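Z., the sequence and structure:
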Amino acid sequence: MDRLIVTILSLNVCGVLAFAPPPRLMSHHRPTLRPQMPGLSMQSDDAKGDDFFSSLFRTIQQPRTQVETEEERLRRLRRERLAKIEAGEVRRANRVSEDKFAYALIFALQFMPLLGNGRLESLVYFYGVAVTTVYLGGRQETIEQAERVSKDNALFAPVFASASIGGLYLLLKNGIDITALYAVVVTLFGAISISDIGVPVLRNLIPGVDFANEEVPLPKAIVQKFKLDEADALPLDGLITLGLGLLCTAVYWSPLVMEQKFIASNILAWSLGMASLGAISLGSFQTGAILLGGLFFYDAFWVFGSDVMMTVATKVEAPVKFIFPADTVRDYNFSVLGLGDLVIPGLFVRLMAKADEALNPENFSYFNTAVLAYAFGLGACFTANAIFQNGQPALIYLDPSLVGSALACASANGQVAQLWDFQEEMDGEQE
């Protein structure tokens, strides 16, 4: 399935004004009222005077509660926000360090075409990139809470996807090519994705730099124009990775033919896939099963029932797919693996990583089982492609493999009911 899933994360920093009561002018010790007999004095006048002056002295000594101004509140929120982001970046960098060999493999595979562009090399490339990306996407740490997919959205996803791909097909058949506009939007998101995904990788590549405290001050003209705080600055690591993302985008839009710049296209596609896996959450096992079940029929229909999927996949040139130069002359000079064939199953694999954390299986890991199931399903798809010599809908192999293996794993762990009812706990929710 050749489709793009991009989530725009907007960050809203909000807070509550701190209201403090005015300083008390009297002591917090309330005088005790005692009944008095007529004509009898319970306390002498000197004692009353002493109590008055003692109370006044205590009131003067009592610290006054400071009222937080609006400017102070905004600065406090900014400090808290930056501290949260930095803590998240540390977690992300540590996870990349744990998976450094998998990231190195992804990097090395980009140069596979230099060894040859035969069928074997293309299979090694697609298989290696897909399985490794699903593994890394399932383990990656994120800073922001992912957007949860509801059951209704999962149920109607095939309908919306069909309308989208059908609309693109009709436009192409009627001579209306929106490829350029589509590609502009996708490459911009790709540059942002590289900026995000690249930060923890950069911190591992250059461990000697204290990126937590390295910032680039904003020009005064920008500060004055947008009425920003003079203390505002941009993180150095984010600027470097954003520059790399813009460089990939520039290479993609250069006048070079695609055979000379397909690596830039694949890097943009990979970053989009990783960012999507971190930005979207299926939320529950039932939602995942509904989504995969619906897209199973979607993929089968549009690949086997018409030329829609293949037409859109080859005519719409944008970094929403992995491409590998073909060794034979054909209408489209690349072999293709759609980004959706990684992201959709990858979301389910990531959900199984959350199930491991919540259910603590005794016998088999749900995440490891899901990664192996994905590898098996993709291998079955490539085998069918080699036998029948035509394009195959990958999801008809991947979806049953993932859902079936998860239920089998749950049975082996004695947790079928728990997995079926499993829901990922989001921030602010309680079990």
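The longest strand covers residues 321-325. DSSP finds 15 helices and six strands in the chain.

Let me know what you think.
H.
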